[in-house]
Structure prediction request, 307 residues.
Amino acid sequence: MRLLDERVYGDVKRLKVIRPFDPWGSPLCTCPLKYSLHPYTGCSHFCLYCYATSYIGRKPSTPKRDFLKRLREDLRHVNPRLTIELSTSSDPYPPLEAWMGLTRMALKLLAERGLRVLITTKSDLVVRDIDVLKATPSAVMITITTLDDNLASKLEPGAPSPSRRLRAVEKLSEAGVPVGVRVDPILPGLNDDPQMIKQLVEAVASAGARHIVTSTLKLRPDIYRRLRDAFPELEPVYRRLYYSEGEVIQGYRYLPRPIREKILEPVIDYALEKGLTASVCREGLGPRFLRGPTCDGSHLIPVRASR
Ligand code: SF4
Prediction:
Protein backbone atom coordinates (compact mmCIF):
# COMPACT_ATOMS: atom_id res chain seq x y z
CA MET A 1 0.00 0.00 0.00
CA ARG A 2 1.25 3.49 -0.84
CA LEU A 3 2.54 5.41 2.20
CA LEU A 4 0.21 8.38 1.77
CA ASP A 5 -2.73 6.02 1.74
CA GLU A 6 -2.15 5.10 5.38
CA ARG A 7 -3.45 8.53 6.31
CA VAL A 8 -6.27 8.52 3.76
CA TYR A 9 -7.63 5.14 4.84
CA GLY A 10 -7.90 5.97 8.53
CA ASP A 11 -6.85 3.59 11.26
CA VAL A 12 -6.08 0.67 8.92
CA LYS A 13 -4.59 -1.58 11.60
CA ARG A 14 -7.90 -1.68 13.44
CA LEU A 15 -9.96 -2.63 10.39
CA LYS A 16 -11.08 -6.25 10.31
CA VAL A 17 -13.50 -6.66 7.40
CA ILE A 18 -13.33 -3.31 5.61
CA ARG A 19 -10.04 -3.21 3.72
CA PRO A 20 -8.29 -0.56 1.61
CA PHE A 21 -8.85 -1.61 -1.99
CA ASP A 22 -5.61 -2.87 -3.47
CA PRO A 23 -6.15 -5.15 -6.49
CA TRP A 24 -3.27 -7.47 -5.74
CA GLY A 25 -0.83 -4.59 -6.05
CA SER A 26 -1.55 -4.01 -9.75
CA PRO A 27 0.35 -0.98 -11.06
CA LEU A 28 -2.28 -0.69 -13.81
CA CYS A 29 -5.19 -0.02 -11.45
CA THR A 30 -6.66 3.45 -12.02
CA CYS A 31 -9.39 3.21 -9.37
CA PRO A 32 -9.91 6.08 -6.96
CA LEU A 33 -8.94 5.30 -3.38
CA LYS A 34 -11.71 3.24 -1.81
CA TYR A 35 -12.42 0.39 0.56
CA SER A 36 -13.58 -3.10 -0.30
CA LEU A 37 -15.98 -5.12 1.81
CA HIS A 38 -16.87 -8.80 1.39
CA PRO A 39 -19.72 -10.27 3.43
CA TYR A 40 -18.92 -13.65 1.89
CA THR A 41 -15.73 -15.54 1.05
CA GLY A 42 -15.69 -17.80 -2.02
CA CYS A 43 -18.29 -17.32 -4.70
CA SER A 44 -21.13 -19.58 -5.81
CA HIS A 45 -21.28 -17.96 -9.23
CA PHE A 46 -18.24 -20.06 -10.21
CA CYS A 47 -17.26 -17.95 -13.24
CA LEU A 48 -14.65 -19.78 -15.30
CA TYR A 49 -12.58 -16.61 -15.60
CA CYS A 50 -12.67 -15.65 -11.89
CA TYR A 51 -9.38 -14.05 -10.78
CA ALA A 52 -10.03 -14.55 -7.09
CA THR A 53 -9.72 -18.33 -7.32
CA SER A 54 -5.95 -18.09 -7.82
CA TYR A 55 -5.75 -16.56 -4.35
CA ILE A 56 -8.51 -18.20 -2.36
CA GLY A 57 -9.43 -21.33 -4.34
CA ARG A 58 -12.73 -22.20 -5.98
CA LYS A 59 -15.36 -22.66 -3.32
CA PRO A 60 -18.99 -21.68 -2.74
CA SER A 61 -19.95 -18.48 -0.97
CA THR A 62 -19.69 -18.73 2.80
CA PRO A 63 -20.61 -15.94 5.21
CA LYS A 64 -17.66 -14.42 7.02
CA ARG A 65 -17.46 -15.30 10.68
CA ASP A 66 -18.88 -12.61 13.01
CA PHE A 67 -19.14 -10.39 9.97
CA LEU A 68 -21.68 -7.88 11.25
CA LYS A 69 -20.01 -7.57 14.64
CA ARG A 70 -16.65 -6.88 13.02
CA LEU A 71 -18.21 -4.50 10.52
CA ARG A 72 -19.80 -2.45 13.32
CA GLU A 73 -16.37 -2.15 14.97
CA ASP A 74 -14.69 -1.19 11.69
CA LEU A 75 -17.18 1.56 11.04
CA ARG A 76 -15.73 3.46 13.99
CA HIS A 77 -12.37 3.71 12.21
CA VAL A 78 -13.08 4.30 8.51
CA ASN A 79 -12.66 7.50 6.56
CA PRO A 80 -16.29 8.46 5.81
CA ARG A 81 -15.29 10.31 2.65
CA LEU A 82 -14.15 7.13 0.89
CA THR A 83 -16.44 4.81 -1.05
CA ILE A 84 -16.96 1.27 0.22
CA GLU A 85 -17.28 -1.26 -2.60
CA LEU A 86 -19.15 -4.54 -2.16
CA SER A 87 -17.46 -6.51 -3.49
CA THR A 88 -14.25 -6.72 -5.45
CA SER A 89 -13.23 -10.37 -5.21
CA SER A 90 -16.46 -12.16 -4.32
CA ASP A 91 -20.07 -11.36 -5.17
CA PRO A 92 -22.17 -9.69 -2.45
CA TYR A 93 -25.34 -11.32 -3.86
CA PRO A 94 -24.71 -15.07 -4.14
CA PRO A 95 -27.84 -17.27 -4.08
CA LEU A 96 -27.72 -17.74 -0.29
CA GLU A 97 -27.99 -13.99 0.21
CA ALA A 98 -31.67 -14.33 -0.78
CA TRP A 99 -32.49 -15.92 2.59
CA MET A 100 -29.46 -14.95 4.65
CA GLY A 101 -29.62 -11.19 4.05
CA LEU A 102 -26.05 -10.54 5.24
CA THR A 103 -25.32 -8.00 2.50
CA ARG A 104 -28.64 -6.29 3.16
CA MET A 105 -27.85 -5.98 6.88
CA ALA A 106 -24.38 -4.62 6.04
CA LEU A 107 -25.90 -2.06 3.69
CA LYS A 108 -28.26 -0.94 6.43
CA LEU A 109 -25.29 -0.30 8.74
CA LEU A 110 -23.53 1.71 6.02
CA ALA A 111 -26.73 3.62 5.22
CA GLU A 112 -27.28 4.54 8.89
CA ARG A 113 -23.97 6.40 8.66
CA GLY A 114 -24.61 7.86 5.19
CA LEU A 115 -21.50 6.19 3.75
CA ARG A 116 -20.81 6.04 0.01
CA VAL A 117 -21.52 2.61 -1.44
CA LEU A 118 -20.58 1.03 -4.76
CA ILE A 119 -22.11 -2.37 -5.46
CA THR A 120 -20.53 -4.69 -8.03
CA THR A 121 -22.52 -7.82 -8.74
CA LYS A 122 -23.76 -10.32 -11.29
CA SER A 123 -27.05 -10.87 -9.51
CA ASP A 124 -30.45 -9.30 -10.01
CA LEU A 125 -31.05 -9.88 -6.30
CA VAL A 126 -29.60 -6.40 -5.81
CA VAL A 127 -32.98 -4.87 -6.76
CA ARG A 128 -34.37 -6.24 -3.49
CA ASP A 129 -32.20 -3.66 -1.71
CA ILE A 130 -33.21 -0.59 -3.71
CA ASP A 131 -34.81 0.88 -0.58
CA VAL A 132 -31.53 0.70 1.37
CA LEU A 133 -29.43 1.85 -1.57
CA LYS A 134 -31.60 4.93 -1.91
CA ALA A 135 -31.04 5.75 1.75
CA THR A 136 -27.31 6.39 1.26
CA PRO A 137 -25.20 7.78 -1.61
CA SER A 138 -24.80 4.72 -3.79
CA ALA A 139 -24.44 3.30 -7.29
CA VAL A 140 -24.54 -0.21 -8.73
CA MET A 141 -22.35 -1.83 -11.37
CA ILE A 142 -23.83 -5.00 -12.85
CA THR A 143 -21.57 -7.31 -14.81
CA ILE A 144 -22.96 -8.46 -18.16
CA THR A 145 -20.37 -10.10 -20.38
CA THR A 146 -22.77 -11.26 -23.11
CA LEU A 147 -26.47 -11.19 -24.00
CA ASP A 148 -26.22 -14.85 -24.97
CA ASP A 149 -27.83 -16.80 -22.10
CA ASN A 150 -26.34 -20.05 -23.36
CA LEU A 151 -22.77 -18.74 -23.42
CA ALA A 152 -23.26 -17.07 -20.03
CA SER A 153 -24.47 -20.35 -18.52
CA LYS A 154 -21.11 -21.88 -19.47
CA LEU A 155 -18.96 -18.93 -18.45
CA GLU A 156 -20.85 -17.98 -15.28
CA PRO A 157 -22.74 -21.16 -14.37
CA GLY A 158 -23.92 -20.07 -10.93
CA ALA A 159 -24.99 -16.52 -11.80
CA PRO A 160 -28.41 -15.29 -12.93
CA SER A 161 -28.90 -15.07 -16.71
CA PRO A 162 -27.91 -11.92 -18.61
CA SER A 163 -31.58 -11.24 -19.37
CA ARG A 164 -32.33 -11.10 -15.64
CA ARG A 165 -29.32 -8.84 -15.08
CA LEU A 166 -30.46 -6.53 -17.88
CA ARG A 167 -33.88 -6.28 -16.27
CA ALA A 168 -32.12 -5.41 -12.99
CA VAL A 169 -30.33 -2.53 -14.72
CA GLU A 170 -33.72 -1.29 -15.88
CA LYS A 171 -35.32 -1.59 -12.44
CA LEU A 172 -32.44 0.18 -10.67
CA SER A 173 -32.48 2.97 -13.21
CA GLU A 174 -36.26 3.36 -13.00
CA ALA A 175 -35.97 3.52 -9.21
CA GLY A 176 -33.38 6.32 -9.43
CA VAL A 177 -30.37 4.27 -8.34
CA PRO A 178 -27.44 5.17 -10.66
CA VAL A 179 -26.33 2.09 -12.52
CA GLY A 180 -23.51 1.06 -14.83
CA VAL A 181 -22.44 -2.19 -16.46
CA ARG A 182 -19.18 -4.09 -16.48
CA VAL A 183 -18.58 -5.75 -19.84
CA ASP A 184 -15.75 -7.51 -18.18
CA PRO A 185 -13.89 -9.58 -19.06
CA ILE A 186 -13.94 -9.99 -22.82
CA LEU A 187 -12.58 -13.38 -23.85
CA PRO A 188 -11.14 -13.88 -27.34
CA GLY A 189 -13.32 -16.11 -29.49
CA LEU A 190 -16.20 -16.10 -27.01
CA ASN A 191 -17.67 -12.64 -26.40
CA ASP A 192 -15.40 -10.39 -28.49
CA ASP A 193 -17.51 -10.14 -31.63
CA PRO A 194 -17.93 -6.36 -32.29
CA GLN A 195 -21.52 -6.79 -33.49
CA MET A 196 -22.46 -8.64 -30.30
CA ILE A 197 -20.68 -6.00 -28.25
CA LYS A 198 -22.59 -3.27 -30.07
CA GLN A 199 -25.92 -4.97 -29.29
CA LEU A 200 -24.88 -5.41 -25.68
CA VAL A 201 -23.90 -1.76 -25.25
CA GLU A 202 -27.11 -0.62 -26.94
CA ALA A 203 -29.19 -2.89 -24.72
CA VAL A 204 -27.61 -1.70 -21.47
CA ALA A 205 -27.81 1.94 -22.57
CA SER A 206 -31.54 1.51 -23.33
CA ALA A 207 -31.97 -0.14 -19.94
CA GLY A 208 -30.58 2.98 -18.24
CA ALA A 209 -26.88 2.23 -17.67
CA ARG A 210 -24.76 5.37 -17.47
CA HIS A 211 -21.22 3.98 -17.40
CA ILE A 212 -19.40 0.98 -18.85
CA VAL A 213 -16.26 -0.70 -17.56
CA THR A 214 -14.55 -3.17 -19.80
CA SER A 215 -11.39 -5.25 -19.93
CA THR A 216 -9.86 -8.23 -21.70
CA LEU A 217 -9.32 -11.53 -19.96
CA LYS A 218 -6.08 -11.79 -18.03
CA LEU A 219 -4.96 -15.38 -17.68
CA ARG A 220 -3.78 -17.22 -14.61
CA PRO A 221 -2.94 -20.92 -14.82
CA ASP A 222 -6.17 -22.08 -13.15
CA ILE A 223 -8.30 -19.87 -15.43
CA TYR A 224 -6.53 -21.29 -18.45
CA ARG A 225 -7.24 -24.85 -17.31
CA ARG A 226 -10.95 -24.16 -16.75
CA LEU A 227 -11.38 -22.46 -20.12
CA ARG A 228 -9.45 -25.21 -21.90
CA ASP A 229 -11.74 -27.83 -20.36
CA ALA A 230 -14.91 -25.94 -21.25
CA PHE A 231 -13.86 -24.78 -24.72
CA PRO A 232 -11.18 -27.22 -25.96
CA GLU A 233 -11.39 -25.81 -29.51
CA LEU A 234 -9.97 -22.52 -28.21
CA GLU A 235 -6.89 -24.06 -26.62
CA PRO A 236 -4.50 -23.46 -29.57
CA VAL A 237 -5.75 -19.87 -29.95
CA TYR A 238 -5.27 -19.06 -26.28
CA ARG A 239 -1.92 -20.78 -26.19
CA ARG A 240 -0.68 -18.64 -29.08
CA LEU A 241 -2.26 -15.33 -28.04
CA TYR A 242 -1.46 -15.51 -24.34
CA TYR A 243 1.61 -17.73 -24.06
CA SER A 244 3.50 -17.10 -27.33
CA GLU A 245 2.54 -13.55 -28.28
CA GLY A 246 1.15 -12.03 -25.09
CA GLU A 247 2.93 -10.31 -22.22
CA VAL A 248 3.10 -10.98 -18.51
CA ILE A 249 2.18 -8.10 -16.23
CA GLN A 250 2.24 -8.55 -12.47
CA GLY A 251 1.77 -12.32 -12.70
CA TYR A 252 -1.09 -12.18 -15.22
CA ARG A 253 -0.85 -13.14 -18.89
CA TYR A 254 -2.24 -10.36 -21.09
CA LEU A 255 -3.14 -10.44 -24.77
CA PRO A 256 -0.75 -8.50 -27.02
CA ARG A 257 -1.49 -4.78 -26.70
CA PRO A 258 -2.71 -4.24 -30.32
CA ILE A 259 -5.26 -7.03 -29.86
CA ARG A 260 -6.45 -5.59 -26.56
CA GLU A 261 -6.88 -2.19 -28.20
CA LYS A 262 -8.77 -3.73 -31.11
CA ILE A 263 -11.15 -5.59 -28.78
CA LEU A 264 -11.75 -2.72 -26.36
CA GLU A 265 -11.99 0.21 -28.77
CA PRO A 266 -15.49 -0.67 -30.00
CA VAL A 267 -16.79 -1.02 -26.44
CA ILE A 268 -15.56 2.46 -25.55
CA ASP A 269 -16.73 3.96 -28.86
CA TYR A 270 -20.23 2.46 -28.74
CA ALA A 271 -20.63 3.59 -25.14
CA LEU A 272 -19.56 7.15 -25.95
CA GLU A 273 -21.88 7.21 -28.99
CA LYS A 274 -24.74 6.34 -26.66
CA GLY A 275 -23.81 9.16 -24.29
CA LEU A 276 -22.36 6.92 -21.57
CA THR A 277 -19.03 7.33 -19.85
CA ALA A 278 -16.67 4.39 -20.30
CA SER A 279 -13.38 3.02 -19.11
CA VAL A 280 -11.12 0.01 -19.22
CA CYS A 281 -9.96 -1.84 -16.11
CA ARG A 282 -6.27 -2.65 -15.46
CA GLU A 283 -5.23 -2.43 -19.13
CA GLY A 284 -2.64 0.38 -19.10
CA LEU A 285 -3.81 1.66 -22.49
CA GLY A 286 -3.79 5.39 -21.74
CA PRO A 287 -6.37 8.20 -21.72
CA ARG A 288 -8.03 7.19 -25.00
CA PHE A 289 -9.46 4.26 -23.01
CA LEU A 290 -10.33 6.15 -19.82
CA ARG A 291 -13.36 8.19 -20.81
CA GLY A 292 -15.07 8.97 -17.55
CA PRO A 293 -14.35 10.79 -14.29
CA THR A 294 -13.58 7.39 -12.73
CA CYS A 295 -12.90 3.96 -14.20
CA ASP A 296 -14.93 1.95 -11.70
CA GLY A 297 -18.19 3.91 -11.78
CA SER A 298 -17.66 5.71 -8.45
CA HIS A 299 -18.56 8.98 -10.18
CA LEU A 300 -22.14 7.73 -10.52
CA ILE A 301 -22.56 7.93 -6.74
CA PRO A 302 -24.52 11.08 -5.95
CA VAL A 303 -23.37 13.53 -3.30
CA ARG A 304 -26.46 12.83 -1.23
CA ALA A 305 -28.80 9.91 -0.79
CA SER A 306 -31.53 9.92 -3.43
CA ARG A 307 -34.33 10.07 -0.87
S1 SF4 B 1 -19.08 -13.29 -9.61
FE1 SF4 B 1 -17.01 -12.41 -9.48
S2 SF4 B 1 -16.14 -13.29 -7.60
FE2 SF4 B 1 -17.90 -14.55 -8.17
S3 SF4 B 1 -17.05 -16.24 -9.36
FE3 SF4 B 1 -17.71 -14.63 -10.80
S4 SF4 B 1 -15.86 -13.39 -11.14
FE4 SF4 B 1 -15.48 -14.62 -9.28
Summary: The chain has twelve helices and 13 strands. The CA atoms of residues 114 and 254 lie 39 Å apart. The first strand starts at residue 18 and ends at 20.
